[in-house]
Amino acid sequence: MKVLLTGGAGYIGTHTAIALHDQGHQVVIVDNLANASQEAVKRAEQITGTSMPFYEIDVCQIDALRRVMEATKPDAIIHFAGLKAVGESVAQPLRYYDNNLNSALSLVKVMLECDVQHLVFSSSATVYGDPERLPLTEDCRIGVGITNPYGWTKYMIEQMLRDISLAEPQLAITILRYFNPVGAHPSGLIGEDPLGIPNNLMPFVAQVAGGRRPEVQVFGNDFDTVDGTGVRDYIHVSDLAAGHVAALDHSQPGVSTYNLGSGRGTSVLELIAAFEQACGHTIPYRIVGRRAGDIDSSYCDPELARRLLGWKTEHTIEDACRDSWHWQRLNPMGYISQ
Length: 338
Hints:
Number of strands: 14
Number of helices: 11
CATH superfamily of the domain at 2-181 and 235-261 and 302-313: NAD(P)-binding Rossmann-like Domain
Strand content: 15-25%
Order of helices and strands: EHEHEHEHHEHEEHEEEHEEHEEHH
CATH topology of the domain at 2-181 and 235-261 and 302-313: Rossmann fold
Strand order of the largest sheet: 3-2-1-4-5-6-11
C-alpha cells in the first residue's frame, strides 16, 4: 500500500514512516517544515535504505495538496499535520483553529476528489477533557471540559470525520487518540527535535540533562496525584508508530476509534527520576505555577486496540528515557548539530 503522511517529517511521522516501510508499505511525505526538519526524512531513508518522496507544502494549500495527490496516487493517508502545543494554543487560539481545522478540511476534500478511501487521523487524549473516570476508554464522554483550543480542534475534526463518514460510507476512517509520545529510534538517528523551546516534557528534560538548558520547570505541584505533579500516560514513539501500521492494516469502512497509550500514568517527578537513571546524573528542576489548561491525570485503557488491532506497547518509560538520552547525546543541538 502507498501511504501519504501529512506532517510526515515530524517526530511521530518519521518513526511511522520507518514502521510502515518495515511492514512493506511505500511512503510519501508531505510537510511544511514549520516544526520539523528535512534532515529527519533523510535519516529515515538512511535507516530504511530506501527513498521516501518528500514534498514541502502546507496541507492547508488545497491546490498544492491536490497536485501531490494526483502525482503520487496514494492508497491511504495518515494525517499528522497540525499545531500541537496545549499551552501555545491557549495563547494563540485563532492560529490553532485556522491551521488545524483548515488542513483537515482541505485533506478530506482532496481525498474525495482523488478517490482515496483510507484515512488514519492523529487525534489526542485531550478530547476527553477533564476525565470523568480513569483509565479512559473509548466510550468515555468527549467534548466536555476540554481545557484548551488544541483539544477543541481535535474534537471538532473527529466530529467532522464522523459526519462526513455518514455521507461517504465507503470511507475507512480510523481515529487514534494519542497520549504522550516519548523516546526515540534506538539508532539515535531520529528523535524529538522541537524548534525553539520544547513544549513537551521529555525533550525538555533531555535538553537539561545534556546541558543545553539550565533546569526543568515543573508546572505545579498541587495536583491531586501521587506526588502533586501532573500524571500522564507516556508511550514510546516506536510503539505509537506500530499502532498506526496496525490501524491501517485493520481499517474498514466507517469510523473506528482507538486509544494508543501504555495504560499507566507517570508523574512529572517520576519521569525526571527515570531520566536521571538513564543519564547517570541529577537533573535540576524548579517548581513553578501551573499552566493554563493542564489537568491532574490522564491515562488510558488500551484494551480495545489490543483486542481488535493486535497491538500493545512493548517499551517501558525506562526504555523511552534511555532512547531519548541516546538521541540527545548523539544530537546535542538536534538535527542542526550534524
